[in-house]
Amino acid sequence: MAGGDIVKVEQTAPHGHHDEHEYGHDDDGDDRVSGEAHVEILGTIEPSIVAARWSPNFQHLIITTGDDNVVFMSRSSDGSLHPIATTAMTAEDLNLSKHVSVGWGKKETQFQGKGAKAKTLRDPTIPEKVDAGTLSSHDDGRCTISWRGDGAYVAVNFFQPGLRRVIRVYNCEGVLESVSEPVDGLEAGMGWRPEGNLIAGIQRLADRIDVVFFERNGLRHGQFTLQLPSDAPDAADDLALEWNPDSSVLAVVMKDRVQLWTTGNYHWYLKQEILSGPYDSQSQSQEQNRLPLFTWDDEQPLLFAVSTAGRVLVNEYIHTISRGPTSPPYDQGAVAVIDGRTIKFTPFGTAMVPPPMAWSEFEVMSPAIDIAFANDGSAMAVLHQLGVSLYALELNGARSCCPRLLETALFDEDDSCTHTAASFQISFVTRSRTVQVLQMDAVPKLITYDFEASAQGDKAWRETLDVDVDLVAAIASPDSSCELDGPLTQDHRGRITIGAHESLARFPRYLPQTGFVTYDGELLAFGLSKAGHLYANSRLLAKQVTSFVVTNSHLIFTNAKHLCKFVHLAGAEDLVVPQDDIDEDERLRKIETGGKIVTAMPTKMSLILQMPRGNLETIYPRAMVLAGIRRLIEQMEYGAAFLNCRAQRVDMNILYDHRPEQFLVNVDLVLAQVKDPAHIDLFLSTLKNEDVTQTMYKDTTLPTTDNQLPEPTVVAKPGKINTICDAILQRLRAKKEVNNQNIITAHVCKSPPALDDALSVVAQLMQEDESLAERAVEHVCFLVDVNKLFDRALGMYDLDLTLLVAQQSQRDPREYLPFIQELHKMSVLDRQFAIDDKLSNWEKALDHLKVLDDFQVVQDYVVKHSLYQHALHIYRRQEQEHSILTGLYAAHLKSRSQFREAGLAYESLNNFAEATDCYLKAGVACWRECLFTAQQQSPPMQADKLDELASTLADALREAKDYAAAATIHMDHLHSVETAIQCLCKGYLFADALRLVSLHKRPDLLESGVDAGLAEAFSSSTEFLADCKAQLKAQVPRIAELRQKAREDPLAFYEGDTRYAGMDIPDDVSVAASSRMSTNASLFTRYTGKEGSVGTLGSNVSHATSKNRKREEKKRARGRKGTVYEEEYLVNSVRRLVERVESTQGEVERLVFGLVRRNMAERARAIDDLMEQVVEGCKVAVGEVWGKRDEGEGVAAGGLVEDERDVYKAGGGEGVFQESLEAARQKQEPPVVGTFKRLSLLGDKR
């Protein structure tokens, strides 16, 4: 290429990859040896090629030539190249770089306050120093090219002779878009971030080297300073920049090393520095001092390869967090961040310091590689290129101190980090101060250093021999919740071991991110793959996981759906992962898009998340909060549990409901820990008769069916509030002078509130200390409506207490002072009566009147307030007064139309005339009492009036179809045997009629009375049964016909249009009846509430009117033939028929028996056969109408109404139709049809 030639190199498949021939053939038929490279010159560009680069999709090639031209070429499908454009890079291009900066973010644009002097002000659009584009002393004149990730634009970093180095931005068609503004010391190194927002370049200044950023329009957009190696100052003489595919890492390539930089919260961190190979600073050979070749993998964003003359290094990294223990009591939230030689340490349990700041910053001897924390959080080990530095993490009470350096263990010469042997990971071995370091040379190697032994003089690194190091891929420190002695290692197959022990757990493959915890004595290993698959041992738990952390009680992870999930620890096969669509589940928490877990602190009940920009957020997930509160309650730390409930807005009923028996036994401890009277009041005021552990805070650790939480239901605990208040009151009364406020609150918070008890406490304090009484009444007025409290205090007849309460209210003294002064003038009984009468305590006021012994006033008061029952009770032992009050009560009952009870009252007073009148008005149910009192009157009633009364009652009973009672009156009181027999025959009581004929020796009535009654009953029963039979034959087949039509063509059936019956209508076309086409949508949208359910001319408002609904209800009630309501009407009609036939079976049986007794066997046999036919017909009808139907049969049958939760509730006339559909969908119980027993004397059925 140096000569300007464009060559194409092809290599055939090596030996062994061809199925038949060892030689391959090119397109021209030439034979070539297998595995041999074939070089073909496609063309020549004059005078030379300076730089060239393919676009990311390999569809475009850009070439810069020796005569300052840029050639754009595209590749066709056959691999040939075609020129698109040729653009000259001239000095005129720099005219595009006249940018104007308005000074955003500059000090000059910020508000300086009123004291800023005019002379200090300056134009922010004019920079303090204007770069002229001075050439760097290390500039070698190279031209570099970098494409944007989508291939739409390309940047060319070119030195314009005699002017400056400039970055030109072209589109893929070769059109110049922009040029960069002048920057002093700009060099050739350049890289366009694949996301497209920044172009990175190198600026070399006198005292530092910066990576500067440009926007696509050429303007500067920030920079950061490189951390240069102190041991190799010449390594940065030549630099190159390479972005990884997802734009998260910027690689800075130096002569002997590669630095990996990431950004967060507008700060750039040096995460890793990889030594790639030595260079000779004294050599003048360009071959020996050129930069190593570096490239990122196109698919794996953190996989790269770097090569030198002697070796190729392929590394892959992951984004991970160096965090301290996450299990109590060591969960201080310690997190360490690597920034080159600087370690940023923050204990989030002590302070929430936002990045890029930190609680403490310190430097190590060389660029850091990895950080490990002791499992008890007491130490932190930093692995760097020269060795390991151990820091003590100490506590000052509950707060963390700055890390204190204990010792630095330098590597031996054989173990030191070089380009041939690199250290990767570090872990603590046990709870002691022993660390292990995983190194990679030709083979993996584990070396160990004991800092405790070092204090005694043994400062040697030792190689670990009890581990199969050839298989070790990663090491990890066990958490404090792991009851393990030693470091955990993972091999390339995912096997987890400790030292030389057998495998403790196994992943399906190697997983780079791991977490470990011991559950029931067994190791529970969690691992996250690069693809986001989360495993528990070998079981796949979830996909699309972005981060996770393990505590002593939960596995916590985030996923790509922006959810944070909590999994209660259990066996690997018993872990239950909550579903995404459970709204009321404490195990789910929505988070900001892209948030990832930094660390968890169960003691603080908090979770630290980091957002994509880099900012931190502390959340208090409900699962962690409830788990922490439950743990505190079990440890009887009620004070801390209360404060957490208060801070996290958790219902304080959990303090009792979680351990009720424990709470009642330790009430003294609860009061001692909560301490503050205001806090005790807060707890008492939140009590309710409900078990919150079964409703809002249901324990999710219990197994559920299909991972679905049951619907929360209100679990009442009657008497819970009073139980707690009584238990607290019992302890508080011992020292009431200190807890008067809480005593009053406990009384008021009872259910119902014990206001009298609370006011009694205030009244007692008034006798002891007026100041305490005033504070107490002020408190009780705060808790209860002061008007209600005034009435209760007045009802206690304590006028001083009433006045004290009134003074706390907003009442006008002119309203209550005259009344209280008037009460002072009264006697005790008169005062009590006046108070109770004003408070509407009329029963108590009546008691006071009884004591005052003025019965006339008592009568008037009883009548005025209807206190008859209470008056009868208190005067039950005074016969005369009781009788007077009973008469008043009877008159009251009669005026309220309660005639039966009024008649009883008058009868008890021997007022039989009024009693007879009341019993008569009470109805036919009191005919016996009415006739009795009528005959008890004094003077007796006249005979004709008594007969008239009896006739009136008999007629009323006959109208009520109580024929037996009517016959009794006619027989016993009117002495009419003929009429009595007629009544009995009317009621199918033929046996009683024959008995009366025999009793009164009236054989003439057998034919005129009994036989005539039998004939009439036979005629009416035959007509009724025939009508029933005909109705069954007509209606049951019609119901079947309607259902068949609905099943075959529901659209035409329910819309009332038969034009489409039998036609194939597409599923996606809605056809409505012509009569409704202009105003309604189709059936399937009209009655399901989906979009488009409103017609073109109509509206929901016009249809959902009361008038339309009433009209539709009438149509539904009529059930006219041909309407959609016909089936419902017919089904109800058949039900009524069956129920009526069932109710007449007894009458027909008595009729048949009477006919046989009077020698009318043929008639008996006829009615018997007809009844049997009708009963059998009813049974068949019940089977056909209410029998089991097909799933698709009936109204809607699940087709019109999909899910009741999604059903649209229509209004107006459409609402009536929808109600009919829903009523038909509900399962209906069929009517009961009993078996009709034929009279055996009639013989078999003919």
Secondary-structure map:
Elements: E1 5-11, E2 23-25, E3 31-33, E4 37-44, E5 49-54, E6 60-65, E7 69-75, E8 81-88, E9 144-147, E10 153-159, E11 165-171, E12 176-179, E13 186-192, E14 199-204, E15 209-214, E16 220-225, E17 240-243, E18 250-253, E19 257-264, E20 267-275, E21 293-296, E22 303-307, E23 312-316, E24 322-323, E25 334-339, E26 342-347, E27 360-363, E28 368-373, E29 379-384, E30 387-392, E31 395-396, E32 399-400, E33 404-410, E34 422-428, E35 434-440, E36 444-450, H1 451-454, E37 462-463, E38 472-476, E39 488-491, E40 495-498, E41 505-506, E42 513-519, E43 522-528, E44 534-536, E45 539-542, E46 545-550, E47 554-559, E48 563-568, E49 588-590, E50 596-601, E51 606-610, E52 616-619, H2 622-634, H3 638-648, H4 654-657, H5 660-665, H6 667-674, H7 677-685, H8 720-732, H9 736-748, H10 755-768, H11 770-783, H12 786-795, H13 799-808, H14 813-825, H15 828-838, H16 842-852, H17 855-865, H18 868-874, H19 879-895, H20 899-908, H21 912-922, H22 927-935, H23 943-959, H24 963-972, H25 977-986, H26 990-999, H27 1004-1048, H28 1050-1055, ...
Antiparallel strand pairs: 1-4, 2-3, 5-6, 6-7, 7-8, 9-10, 10-11, 11-12, 13-14, 14-15, 15-16, 17-18, 18-19, 19-20, 21-22, 22-23, 24-25, 25-26, 26-27, 28-29, 29-30, 30-33, 31-32, 34-35, 35-36, 36-37, 38-39, 39-40, 40-41, 42-43, 43-44, 44-45, 46-47, 47-48, 48-49, 50-51, 51-52
